[in-house]
Amino acid sequence: MKKNIPIIKLYGAEGCHKTHYYQLLLEARGLPFQFLDVEKNEDYAEELRSLYESGKLNFPTITIGSKKLRNPNKEELNKWINKLIPSILDVQHDKVNNAYLLAINEGIAKVEYQLKNGKMYLIHSEVPIQLRGRGIGKELVEKTFEKLTKEGYKAVAVCSYVKAVAKRSDKWKEIIEF
Predict the structure, then answer these.
(1) Fewer Cβ within 10 Å of end Cβ, the chain: N or C?
(2) Edge-to-edge, what's the strand order for the sheet holding 34-37?
(3) Nearest partner of 120 among 146, 160, 157, judged by Cα
(4) In the chain, how many H helices and how many E strands?
(5) What is the pLDDT of residues 50-59, one digit of tens each?
(6) pLDDT at 2
(7) pTM
C-alpha cells in the first residue's frame, strides 16, 4: 500500500523524448504524477519559470513535493524517490540476522529481534543518521508489523521507539504487546 506520497509534477512537452522517458520511469514505479505540458499551456510554463531564478523554461523538470529535479539521470531520480517516498519500499525479513530491513539508497534501516517462547521480541530499531527526520523510522516499524503479522508472529515491543509507534494505533493491539 502506497501512502504519504507527495505531489509529483513532471514539467515537459509532449514531443520531448526526455519527458516521455520520465513518464515511463514514474509509471514503472507506480507513482501518481501530474504531467504539465509547458508548450501547450502557458500557466504550466509560468509555473515552471517561477521555479528558477533565471525565469527560463527549463524542462524536463520533476518536482516531488518541494524537491526540484532538473533533468536527473535515472539513478538520481530513483534515489530521491526512495528518500522522499519510503512508503513505496518493501521491508525484507533477514532471518539469519534476526532483523527486518528497509534498504534506502545509501543506508539500511532495521528492526532487530529475538525469538523466545514463540514470540518475537523487537529489541532495537535504527535508521541511518543521514536518513533521519523523514518519517522513515515510522514507516519501517509499521512495515515490520505488517510483515511479521503476515508471517504469523506475535511480537513484544521492547525498543522504546517500536513501543511508541505501536501505541499510536489500535491496529496493532492484538499483535504487539508492550
Answers:
(1) N
(2) 34-37, 8-12, 61-64, 67-70
(3) 157
(4) 5, 10
(5) 999 999 999 9
(6) 54
(7) 0.71
Q: What is the pLDDT of residues 157-174, one digit of tens each?
A: 999 999 999 999 888 887
Residues 6+ apart with CB under 8 A from 167: 178
The mean pLDDT of 90-102, rounded to a whole number, is 95
Contacts 24+ apart (CB under 8 A), 112-116: 113/155
CA distance 139 to 103: 12
C-alpha distance from residue 32 to each of 1, 85, 110, 126 (Å) = 13, 12, 28, 30
From the CB of residue 36, how many other CB atoms can be counted at a distance below 10 Å? 21
What is the full DSSP assignment across 123-161?
EEEE--GGGTTSSHHHHHHHHHHHHHHHTT--EEE-SHH
